[in-house]
Design goal:
This protein is 33% helix and 17% strand. With 897 residues, the chain is α/β, with parallel strands linked by helices.
Amino acid sequence: MATKNSYESILTTLSKPGGGEFGKYFSLPALNDPRIDRLPYSIRILLESAIRNCDGFQVMEKDVEKILDWENTAPKQVEIPFKPARVLLQDFTGVPAVVDLACMRDAMNKLGGDSNKINPLVPVDLVIDHSVQVDVAGSANAVQANMELEFQRNKERFGFLKWGSNAFNNMLVVPPGSGIVHQVNLEYLGRVVFNNGGMLYPDSVVGTDSHTTMIDGLGVAGWGVGGIEAEAVMLGQPMSMVLPGVVGFKLSGKLKNGVTATDLVLTVTQMLRKHGVVGKFVEFYGEGMSELSLADRATIANMSPEYGATMGFFPVDHVTLQYLKLTGRSDETVAMIESYLRANKMFVDYSQPQTEKVYSSYLQLGLEDVEPCISGPKRPHDRVPLKEMKADWHSCLDNKVGFKGFAVPKESQNKVADFTFHGKQAQMKHGDVVIAAITSCTNTSNPSVMLGAALVAKKACDLGLEVKPWIKTSLAPGSGVVKKYLDKSGLQTYLDQLGFHIVGYGCTTCIGNSGDLDESVSAAITENDIVAAAVLSGNRNFEGRVHPLTRANYLASPPLVVAYALAGTVNIDFEKEPIGTSKDGKKIYFRDIWPTNEEIADVVQSSVLPDMFRSTYESITKGNPMWNELSVPSAMLYSWDPNSTYIHEPPYFKNMTMSPPFSDIELQLEMPPYCITTDHISPAGSIHKDSPAAKFLMERGVDRKDFNSYGSRRGNDEIMARGTFANIRIVNKLLKGEVGPKTIHIPSGEKLSVFDAAMKYKNGGHDTIILAGAEYGSGSSRDWAAKGPMLQGVKAVIAKSFERIHRSNLVGMGIIPLCFKAGEDAETLGLTGHERYTINLPNSVSDIKPGQDVTVVTDNGKSFTCTVRFDTEVELAYYNHGGILPFVIRNLISDEH
């Protein structure tokens, strides 16, 4: 039973400077503990949350002590509970979350509980931003045309979300066309400090998108979690987490002229990935901080998943306060934020002497050492200095197939593919750009790089440069504010002239919503086996993600996206080769169109104004005519339509009783494929015409043109289970290097789609396992990458290592994560995948301990030891109940009695 808070004695009143009070708060200085001054700022946020929520039940005094003693306890990987202030969703991850909540209400009802208890207990903000596709590009009506298509495809999903916003308390839904979730969070939703009924506390957030970390740039502690974990937080459960180490990243100096925030973030990403920061916080500090705008910080924070950290945190300082005022937060709100954070030792004042913080490890970067660069062709942390790009490209053509190789034979590297584009003769070579996208993912929150891109466009247009008409160009701003400042600057017209018309406000190319290429371009690529390129200002460039036909995908700053669109190829040395020819026949080089930092700063100063943010967000929840016309039922329980191909009642709670299902575990298991990322496990992009999901849709009368994407159909478990392991670029060791979503059904020897093989195993009474390599499940935080395997009958994953969120999601769905011992993997142990496996877990869940070793035995006499990656006692409880959702339901019903 919960007791009163143990720390009520340090509850303090925060007075306003002119009289009156802002509210009460739990005062860290009132603890009189010298350890606080040495704690990283990010750890102080965890400390305050533990103190404020210390009820002797969910959060204990010993948990507070663990955090206070972070310097000694963090290296020991101790467990702590954390209760975030709010939850953030986007529609790809939000739809299944709302589906699960609706389904949980039904389960509560059937088990005799109060279904109205299934409600978010903390504020939940859901931004519909992942459904817009670039069907129409390069035209003035692109925004309206794409939104109309978005509503045609997603009307049912949007209606469901609108129902959820009415049926559930504490849930705000931001309608489509408003911007990308992370930028809306930064500019509007982020509180920095909460005032909840007179109780003040730091804003903190977990989101069902791994790039929730963008908010860390605002001094708000936030990171991505699995949808399953987020639902538990919504329902009042504390997050169980390992108290993280914190890497101190010191910044000094100033960026050189011509170097962008994107160049900086790609450099930081490479450094941190090399250092090793998985499961850690990264906290930035040093005199270089004053040279970074809030938008620059947010750009670095956004890429946390790419460098592997839980957070890339920038403590609140004067730059943060300036940004809050710029984005339309009231003077009183900003005063309250500053007063609270200063009073509670959470504000960095660089005019005062700094107490030396203790960090787990240290890195340092002189900003003046950063140089222009891009990343690719297949991973975000494979940074290539711009001056080395041509040489790197040629080595990629030569190298064997891999992250840095395409294995194109020497004699084919200069192949020219002739084709006809809209009646005109055209040519294509390896490395030619077919997609150039300024995307909302990372950079459109940053006016410097956006206006920098527009200045490149202006200089290019003034010189008479053009983009080849078959290159698909697009601009997808992260919020309506971007259009306002581009219009005010007068520069949007030049972007339009080059084909970079605004196509929509949301996540487009980076998530795979890049739309179709022209048929002639697609045919030229496929018929000639051309390694075509995409250049985008996003975060992710994994194989098969951006577009199925772009095998080379490069991440670049928005100005570089424009430059590469003008060049038409990534096979160029910008220092030595012209980017094009002017209208008077003169060769034009990269340097001729590149703006100076001063030019960019002047345009930012005159064009980005507070009123733009205020006017944009005053009307953001009012929606648009298409959203407002959606008619939704008012019932508190959802009426499932069995014929719907978008929203379907999942089978998680069928036959559920009040008794946990744990029984003795001795699994006879088979092995489907080797996988790497969540893009391989659960693709979000287009549904391939020959896939099991396509077959399912066609059997239900859905035309191919209406397939939509996997991401948009995440509310239907029957499609998502069929989409699991359906990435066209997946490589399964059972197929000896063959590329594609197939596997061998071991007993019969048949080559089948992974789904069909999984169903054959399942129907034959066989459970299945996955044998995998390192960092299994890296990539976007997709709950379906765990839900899909569970529905396919997977009971365990044995990997060299796991990505943080994905491991947690597996546990949340009742799948056992196991790690090979150091130096061992399937190959060193001689495992082929044709064996049958028995995992010897203890007979009782009470005998399983976090991190214990277990023996795995195969039917051909091999035996090896693995570590069970249940990291906390809470995770063991989830597993005992068959997953986190049944655990929550049983607990809520138990609390009623």
